[in-house]
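Q: I'm writing up a methods section and want to include an example of the input and output format. Could you take the sequence below and give the corresponding predicted structure tokens, formatted cleanly so I can copy it straight into the document?
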Amino acid sequence: MTIRVAIADDHPVVLAGLEHSLAGADGIQLVGGCSNSTELVELVGAQRVDVVVTDFSMEGGRYGDGIAMLRFLDRRFPHLKLVVFTGVESPQVMRSIQDCGVLAILAKSDDYDFLAPAIRHAYERKPFLSPSVQKLLEEFESQADGASQVRLTKRETEVLRMLAEGMSIQDIGARVGRSRKTVSSQKSSAMKKLGLSRDADLFRYAVDSGLVQSSQSSRGAVEAAPGEE
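A: Here is the clean output for your methods example:
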């Protein structure tokens, strides 16, 4: 059995490190390296790839980065297994990554020796967390209070993400095929669950939780139009 792997990171040194780490890995074949989501989608669409190892934050790609990119890959290539290799040190972001169905997460601060085992686990659809990620999540769970354990529905999360990206409630309704009233209700429900009262707080939550990346923040903080509360 040979696992065909694609890697993606926007830092050439990191990309080279990943390539070097996989060079002698038994049963793993590197099919290509990418520096953004555009190159990654083109590669996966053109060749058979079993597992993608991708950075979480990569600017400049047509398909975004972070949670948006992970969800896109899951929709477009449902057979694909994902390993996220990230320097982000937020437990909320880690949970958001897991909520996308990603089973294997590696911290860039951990040894590259964990890369091949993570790929094999992902290929077999088994969970794998590198030591730093495991420690981060365990500490988060031990310190968590009720508010931090709030779980939004898939549609509530989708609405918050698009709001944080600068879309209006009317635009969101048109994109997802829901009425303005329904979208507004989903926004209000999510904010109530999270204990948020202002749209500015919603935007900060979206960034902190990984719903949107700082590379998307240039679109501006969420500002609801009159009557959209």
